[in-house]
């Protein structure tokens, strides 16, 4: 097996003065005058960073509710684990395919804020129905499991269409707002910090609802989750309004002769080894964070036998720690070496956290709070650096940035949807099935950590790549992922870690 190697751009400092952007068909696409280049490359003010950072709050808070409470809610209203998994998979598939089309349309027509606003409206309207009453059941006066599944699957798909449009437009704006590489990481870090704020807000709302409302019937339990969803939508919409008012519509810069840069074809990205490398890192990172979030409520209640309030308290601790780390990361001047170092640190923390979750007995359930701190730090380190690697991949090729974010998000959504479908469909086999989440996370993190470690030794020492061996039994759950990853790394050996050419 050949190792995964991050390219030379992660082995050296980011270029500071590149003023020429390349396209596959036109070597020189965009040339800035000194004044334009300097103004577009200088760091943004804190207010601009703040306005951008809050723009994904509605998506983040509804996504947190989706992954944390949807499976529990659908189970409580009577759906079987397989039907519950079908609802979530339908949403993930709709999200995945929408990211591809949204990315292409945004690259073609622009108007980031229009896409963002339209997607936010769709999210707000449809998400209330995802946790709402089954309308077809009321119309046809039936409680058929099939009707329930179709109804919730439909609204789940609509919700994810809006969610994808908002996500792609918001993420691709980073590269069009500034050329400054450190500022791009700061924007990603701020966005991640408010992701944690959104998640923390959700769990604060959930903790309040669980403590104030004492359910006596199944209907009362359903209403608890509905109130959580409605309040989440309200909070998210407030922050989206701040984003739309405070953020200016980014414009693609013009060349000194007034010609705009040509659109970059999809084939341009598929020919870049870096695209596949960043895709593997990003997808596995998202798989770890999303799977762990989706099954955390089941794990603390069913496996550790913790109190009901732990469904909100444990995730809250995770996101408090993530907020603190994300804020600290905004103050760092970023280089390729630091991206690798912080990503590797997050991977190491998740390896130990996954092992702890796997072997933690219910008699020592309070240690879960300590593990939550480590998970929160690891999530922040990996998410900030993983998203920032996408900005490095795009560089100054702005006309294809939405496709990059859309295609990587497509892979993320499909992989997460399939993973959750498989795990949830088999949950009724064994009450400790939620332990699999630690195996998935631990296995993926071992792979990511080893790849990052080997890439450092290859880039810094220019030595032959060693063969990787994995002996831990938990990696067995990631054999398929390992096989796919190892097949792509055959393209990498001997082609990377060349001297960086200034752009």
Task: Describe, in short, the structure shown.
The protein is an all-alpha fold. Helices cover 70% and strands 1% of the residues.
Short key terms for the protein model shown above:
503 residues, mainly alpha, Growth Hormone, Chain: A, 17 helices, 70% helix, globular, disordered N terminus
Model description:
- By secondary structure, the chain is mostly helical.
- It has a single domain (8-18, 47-247, 273-489), classed as Up-down Bundle (Growth Hormone, Chain: A), CATH 1.20.1250.20.
- The protein is built from 17 helices and two strands.
- It has helices at residues 34-41, 46-53, 57-76, 81-109, 112-130, 135-140, 145-177, 181-212, 218-246, 266-270, 273-303, 310-329, 336-359, 367-394, 401-425, 436-461, 479-489, and strands at 20-21, 30-31.
- It has a two-stranded antiparallel sheet.
- Strand 1 (20-21) and strand 2 form a beta hairpin.
- The longest helix has 33 residues, at 145-177.
- The protein starts with 19 loop residues before the first strand and ends in a 14-residue tail after the last helix.
- The relative contact order is 0.18.
């Amino acid at each position: 097996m050949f190792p995964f190697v991050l390219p030379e751009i992660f082995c050296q400092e980011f270029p500071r003065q590149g003023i020429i952007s390349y396209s596959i068909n036109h070597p020189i696409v965009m040339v800035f005058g000194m004044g334009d280049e300097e103004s577009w490359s200088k760091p943004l003010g804190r207010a601009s960073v703040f306005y951008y950072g809050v723009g994904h709050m509605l998506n983040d808070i509804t996504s947190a509710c989706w992954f944390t409470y949807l499976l529990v809610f659908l189970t409580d209203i009577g759906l079987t684990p397989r039907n519950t998994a079908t609802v979530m998979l339908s949403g993930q598939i709709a999200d995945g395919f929408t990211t591809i089309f949204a990315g292409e349309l945004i690259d073609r027509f622009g108007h980031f804020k229009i896409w963002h606003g339209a997607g936010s409206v769709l999210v707000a309207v449809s998400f209330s129905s995802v946790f709402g009453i089954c309308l077809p059941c009321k119309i046809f006066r039936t409680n058929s499991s099939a009707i329930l599944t179709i109804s919730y699957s439909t609204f789940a798909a609509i919700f994810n269409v809006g969610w994808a449009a908002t996500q792609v437009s918001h993420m691709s704006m980073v590269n069009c707002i500034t050329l400054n590489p450190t500022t791009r990481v700061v924007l990603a870090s701020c966005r991640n910090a408010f992701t944690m704020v959104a998640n923390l807000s959700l769990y604060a709302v959930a903790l309040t609802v669980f403590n104030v409302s004492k359910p006596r019937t199944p209907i009362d339990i359903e209403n608890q989750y509905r109130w959580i969803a409605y309040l989440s939508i309200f909070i998210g919409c407030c922050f989206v309004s701040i984003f739309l008012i405070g953020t200016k519509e980014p414009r693609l810069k013009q060349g000194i002769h007034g010609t705009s840069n040509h659109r970059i074809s999809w084939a341009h990205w598929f020919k870049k080894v870096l695209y596949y490398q960043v895709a593997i890192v990003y997808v596995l990172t998202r798989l770890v964070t999303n799977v762990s979030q989706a099954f955390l409520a089941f794990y603390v209640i069913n496996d550790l036998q913790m109190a009901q309030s732990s469904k909100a308290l444990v995730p809250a601790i995770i996101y408090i720690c993530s907020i603190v780390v994300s804020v600290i990361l905004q103050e760092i001047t970023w280089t390729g070496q630091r991206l690798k170092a912080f990503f590797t640190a997050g991977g190491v923390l998740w390896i130990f956290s996954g092992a702890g979750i796997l072997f933690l007995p219910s008699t020592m359930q309070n240690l879960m709070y300590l593990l939550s701190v480590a998970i929160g730090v690891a999530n922040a380190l990996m998410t900030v650096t993983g998203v920032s690697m996408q900005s490095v991949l795009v560089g100054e090729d702005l006309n294809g940035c939405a496709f990059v974010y859309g295609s990587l998000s497509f892979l993320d959504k499909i992989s997460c949807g399939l993973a959750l479908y498989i795990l949830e469909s088999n949950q009724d086999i064994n009450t400790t099935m939620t332990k699999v989440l630690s195996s998935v996370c631990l296995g993926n993190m071992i792979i990511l950590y080893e790849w990052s470690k080997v890439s450092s030794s290859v880039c810094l020492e220019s030595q032959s790549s060693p063969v990787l061996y994995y002996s831990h039994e938990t990696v067995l759950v990631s054999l398929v992922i390992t096989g796919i990853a190892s097949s792509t790394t055959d393209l990498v050996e001997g082609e990377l870690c060349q001297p960086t050419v200034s752009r």
